[in-house]
């Protein structure tokens, strides 16, 4: 599930924030491509709308890689056991 979220994050970075696709991998850190805390908050809101889940402020952080962010949001999609 986190792979799907990671793909959505990559898509948002490319389409909304105009980050060139060749600068992005799953190990890219948000700060390294000039994505700041305001952009991350906006991205969280977009993901909330797409996924239909609440994402707490601070779930996405500038020091995270795209894969870490995808895993953090993907974990919110997994029902607790």
Automatic annotation (TrEMBL):
UniProt cross-references to PROSITE patterns, sorted A to Z: CARRIER
Protein name as annotated: Carrier domain-containing protein
Record-annotated Carrier domain positions: 3-77
InterPro entries tied to this protein: ACP-like_sf (IPR036736), PP-bd_ACP (IPR009081)
